[in-house]
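User: Please predict the structure of the protein below. I'd like the answer in structure-token form so I can feed it into my own downstream comparison script.

Assistant: Understood. Taking the following sequence of 224 residues as input:
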Amino acid sequence: MTLFLKRLGLPFKDLSYYETALTHASFAYENQSEKNERLEFLGDAVLGFLMTDYLYRTDPSDEGVMSKKKAKAVSEEALVVYAATIGLKEHMRLGRGEAVKGANGAMVADAFEALMGAIYLDLGLEYVSLFFNQVIKPNLRKTLEIRDHKSALQELIHSGDKRNISYHLIRESGPSHDKEFEVEVRLDKTIRLGSGIGKTKKEAEQRAAKDALGKGNYDTEETV
């Protein structure tokens, strides 16, 4: 851990913040230690602020365009890209079962946000801003090209008329540290357009939207 942080140029003070940031709930459950979810909550807010500030200062687009760019730049897929550039996945602490399977995208994204929360708590806004500039900014172009299936479906539906789409949780299973969600996307709350399964609700919604885009016929799908 110390070598990892030194490689990132972080003059850490309290190592425990970073150990917790990279601790998945499965490891915490098996070892009676703290999981990274509270730090993830904080890191999500820190990242959101820094991204909003950066776009406001550098992008002349209106609020709607900036909101779409921000959503892509802080999406799960984008966080996985940022995490890969620093080799974060190799330093995560997983329970025995998860270690065999390997961390999925949702776990990696959560850990990256938790790491930002840890940096903020340990070193303050100055250093988490430096981390943002060194790790996130160089990869923004790549992450802004990531396809957002939910937005694409929304735009496609609204391009024809003003009908509404909505996402519905169909099934939730598994222990708290290894949940699986199944989501349906519906047109006007009654017509099934597609479905998706993921480790988070967001991931399941994206897959449901992708499924709907692949089918393409939005008037003849099965009615709920």
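That's the full token string. The chain has twelve helices and three strands.
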